[in-house]
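Because discrete structure vocabularies remain unfamiliar, it helps to consider an illustrative case, giving the amino acid sequence and backbone structure tokens:
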Amino acid sequence: MRKLIFFMHTSLDGFVAGLKGEMDWIHFNDDMFDFVATMTEQADTALYGRVTFDMMQHYWPTAGNKPNATKHDKEHSEWYNKVSKVVLSKSIHENGLENTQVISDNLAENILKIKQQEGKNILIFGSPSASHSLLSLDLIDEFWIFVNPVLLGEGIPLFKEVKEKTPLNLLETKTFTCGVIALHYERKRH
């Protein structure tokens, strides 16, 4: 079965965005981009909530074609354009969207079907609300949490409305020169 892997940046005090969705506090550098490229090579499906999908769709399809495009822009744009995309949304439709499936109901059943298909990993980037729904249905297999060296004080929490204890195994940690520490966990299964 394919793995659903959650990627999320967080502040040290556990927020994924400011109160208005601000993410200007996230630290990036080339070694982090190179690391993300190794993860995307192992995935052929990207899963998003509607808000994150709208942001991605606005930027990534043409990011690699711009005159000032970085190596990361070119690589991630190419990956984004070729992978299958799954969007969790009740307000958008697949009409006009290329290589994109929209799931608006029966979340657990539909995600399990995708996980049972042949293929590589499924990555969910950001998408706090969608991630909360997936977590509550125990559909996430692994977590990559990128802890940024900043305290926000308030904002959108990393894990919201967790109803029960969710045991995890620490698989590895990775430290980036920009001060971010990545924590890689897998869901402990019975």
Observations:
- The beta strands are 4-11, 15-17, 43-49, 84-88, 100-103, 121-125, 142-148, 156-157, 168-175, 181-187.
